[in-house]
Design goal:
Blueprint lengths: L1 H21 L2 E4 L5 E4 L5 H8 L3 H10 L4 H22 L5 H11 L8 H5 L14
Antiparallel strand pairs: 1-2
């Protein structure tokens, strides 16, 4: 009975990724280039598909090797993280968005506070010494 439940969870997780992949479509850009667009892999999407809260998926996924359920969640979280990093490296995802999504997964670096992003610092140098 237990193994049937685990297999079902694994199948549901794989079904989520397959559903995202099934939305892939070729899009011709204005410059003549071609790109593939699809529904991205996200923790929110996985959570909705499984009808399991995001916090529960994260908590069980962070346990890692403790039970098959935790391993399935950990594998899914790594796959989502890999997807985010790959698309950021390809320039299809902005750094700030990728960093925020990776932070949500509990990996990656934390973003600086918003106030720091908006602050401009001007440094005036008096090379000739006229200000003295």
């Amino acid at each position: 009975m237990e193994s049937a439940k685990r297999k079902t969870l694994k199948d549901k997780i794989e079904a989520y990724f397959a559903a995202c992949d099934a939305t892939a479509e070729r899009v011709t850009l204005k410059n003549g280039g071609v790109t593939i667009r699809q529904t991205p892999y996200t923790l929110a999407g996985l959570s909705e598909h499984l009808a399991i809260p995001q916090g529960e998926i994260l908590a069980k996924g962070r346990k890692g090797g403790e039970g098959a359920e935790s391993r399935h969640f950990a594998d899914a979280l790594r796959r989502i993280g890999r997807y985010i990093v790959e698309h950021a490296l390809l320039g299809e995802l902005q750094y700030s968005v990728a960093a925020k999504l990776l932070e949500e997964l509990g990996t990656g670096e934390k973003l600086p506070p918003d106030e720091e992003d908006r602050r401009i610092v001007i440094v005036l140098e008096d090379r000739e010494g006229w200000g003295e």
